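Lecture 7, part B: from sequences to assemblies.

Below are the input chains for today's worked example.
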Amino acid sequence: MKRNFKYITGVLLVISLIAFVRCQSSNQGGALGGDVAQKVYVAPGEHDEFYALVSGGFSGQLAVYGLPSGRLFRVVPVFSVDAEKAYGFNEETKPMLNTSHGFIPWDDAHHPDISQTNGELDGRWVFINGNNTPRIARISLSTFETEEIIELPNSAGNHSSSFVTENTEYVVAGTRFSVPVPQQDISIEEYKGKFKGAMSFIKVDQETGHMDLSFQIMMPGFNYDLAHPGRGKSHGWMFFSTYNTEEANSLLEVNASQNDKDFIAAINWKKAEELIAAGEFTTMPSEYAHNIYDESTHTATSTIKKEVRVIDPSKHPGLVYFLPTPKSPHGCDVDPTGEYIIGSGKLAAALTAHSFTNMLDAIKNEKFDGEAYGIPILNYDDIVAGVVQQAGLGPLHTEFDGKGNAYTTFFISSEVVKWKLGTWEVLDRQPTYYSVGHLMIPGGNSRKPFGKYVLAMNKITKDRYLPTGPELTQSAQLYDISGEKMELLLDFPTVGEPHYAAGIPADLIKPRQTKIYKLEDNQHPFVARSEKETKVVREGNEVHIYMTTIRSHFAPDNIEGIKVGDKVYFHVTNLEQDYDVPHGISMIGAQTSELLIMPGQTETFIWEPKKVGVWPFYCTDFCSALHQEMQGYVRVSPKGSNVPLKWTLDGE
Amino acid sequence: MIRKSLIDMKTSNIKHVFRSLLLLAITLSVVACGPSAEEKEKRDKIKEQIAASKDPMQNKGIGPVKSLTLGPIDEAMAEEGRELFESLCTACHKTDKKFIGPSPKDILDRRSPEWVMNMILNPQEMVEKDPIAKQLLIEANGAPMANQSLTEEQARKILEYFRTL
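Predicted structure of the full complex, as structure tokens:
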């Protein structure tokens, strides 16, 4: 009996424990180390607190995640074609990828930056650079579509881009590679002195967002790596980090790492504006594409521009100064007050913080330490505000929390280091997995950071995820920075290779959302605003089908009189006016992608039938219970046949 | 308390006690952590409301339009309604026959004006909850009434057009 009693007591204890744990696990901040998981847990149906707009690197796109959950919502096609959304495949968006070199289906997208007003994020647009064939894109944060792309002449490896000034007056883009300007057939060995680096200032229309390349400042032939605008007291200045001030043109990994210090170039763009207004520039013949997507025609147009205004800084004292900075600085970041310009000398162990106030004093007193190509070099000791000593190995990028702290990534020692502005002391360090590149605090490069999380974006994942052959996922890591010590909360995989990212509170974006395009506003030249307007028109061997789609049929859905050798345009209008009811369409044998048409929108694909027969098309986006019934046929007759053109829906 | 009473039951079947205890513990834990009955009450209330609206002409449907009195037909308004209907509705509704959905001809002999407007303005909730709309969805083989994002004013104009058919 005694043994039974013990047995029962034991069982009871276990049962109570199970009941206890069961209840506990549904409580907030419960035991079992669940608090970290709860910090990133966004319950089904609930929304994340922040948007993270993460560059896709060599995917050419921009990925939209929620923070803190790390959930992926959308990949916005920017510089690369995207068959899923027909971007670069449909007739409407092909012009978006036009350049002075012709249609280019890919680029390398690095540094997104959200538009600002008074130095604070305003949620209107996000800009991002294409590195390879230099371009800047503007993406609407109402539609999450790429609305505009402008090519940059005289630029090559458009890396120190795209950064917006405090009121989005300009999007600024610097060249990484210097090149002959204008391009010409010369020996590469003539690099020194003959190659130039173009810094582009793109004016942004505050109403439409439209971009216009206002002017370029033609800098010496260094490599311009990264940039940030001044803010607050330093508003009106732009800072660019440089490397290869040695002006090497081969084996740069050795030859561009000789100098003890390179420069941060400080450009007074307000002064440049004055020069432009005074006509102190030269107009240079040039060729670059400017592509704009029009929301009312749902169609992009591409224009080739023919000239650019250029300013030579050697001829205009006061326009540019060089700030000596050890050692091949990569990141060039400005704190929220605008006082400190942080240079991350990637081949140094220390971080350098220059003082804007000291810089202005040195300029005022003309305390120069020589010049380079007519541009004054300031004295390092006069301008430096502080150095973060022995912070780590390979510093790359710095963001700010708005509470007086800075967070810097260290690529070689693979960590994020928190340090204090002004005292330059290291406060905390956390490892990253592995080899972190950029980091992002929502608003962390503006006057008003939202210092709750930092997102680290890594170059290597190795063993962090299930392996997928030789190519492994890229990844980001989320840290809580609300306390004194950083806390790693989450790993999540990313699209392409993440470079920089931009984060913003969801409340600044959600109210701006476009839900549908109004049919009555649709000005597409081939729109059919109702089924009554559907038709098929032949012009020689070109056939234009004005088609509509609504749950769950196409109109027309039976078409005859098409012949082998025809070029058939499907212009498809989605008649739906309800949120989240896109329709897709694809045609057997069409050498293009599907269309994915939003409510009220018109899109076009081309089909050139090569074989006689009766060929089906269907809706590719599951739209309703009768989605599988959403289909149609096109009859294709031999070349020269007399089958009349005929189109019907339900026999009418 | 449970343990004390257990000790008193010296001669009882231990296995039986154990089984009862296990049941008790599970029941307790489920009750303690289970969902409230509020959600259930809400659902029952909706069910009652639906049951109360059996007469189609008394059924005002579910949506923003609660009460509507019709005067003489306003021809200008009906004309505007016709234009709206033709651009936004004719992909599924024809005035001379059933197409994807029913014809709106003589609709006010079959439905209340409020119901018609609520069906235009709030179709998703209607096909989920309104008994007539639910039946119509089945008759249409599950083809949903599309929400064309009309304003109340626009829906009223379309209703006026329906009166002229």
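Note for the exam: The first strand of chain A starts at residue 50 and ends at 55. Keep this in mind when comparing with the next example.
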